[in-house]
Design goal:
By secondary structure, the protein is an all-alpha fold. About 65% of the residues lie in helices and about 0% in strands.
């Protein structure tokens, strides 16, 4: 009767962690590859559409509209992006609260309150 591995375990915890880490790396790699294939597929489809559009433009002598492309940096992987700190989240919320309409509203409320206090100070109830 061998009781050695029954309670304490064999010490395979390190191997299990390594296997889990390897499986996670493979999963992330598979996701990345699938995303690249999807982007390539859509790029090719867009090229085909643009080719058809150009044929139509040529047929009807239509000039192509000039596209203004803003250089937007794309996150390499949305799952791997940096999380925002509570300070950044608070600042963004504050900026959202301080849009033009809110600023105008606050200005008007301040002016109304000032006028109200001036009128109240001049009027005396008897």
């Amino acid at each position: 009767m061998n009781i050695l591995g029954a309670v304490g375990g064999d010490g395979d915890d390190g191997d299990d962690k390594e296997k889990e880490e390897e499986a996670e790396r493979e999963r992330l790699e598979a996701i990345r590859e699938a995303e690249e294939r999807r982007k390539e597929k859509h790029r090719k489809m867009e090229e085909e559409r643009e080719k058809m559009r150009q044929e139509i433009r040529d047929k009807y002598n239509i000039k192509k509209k000039e596209e203004i492309v803003d250089p937007v940096q794309e996150e390499p992987n949305p799952l791997m992006r940096k999380k925002k700190t509570p300070e950044e989240l608070a600042r963004e919320a504050e900026e959202a609260d301080e849009d033009e309409f809110t600023k105008l509203k606050n200005t008007i409320e301040t002016q109304v309150n000032e006028l109200k206090s001036q009128i109240e100070s001049k009027c005396v109830m008897q």
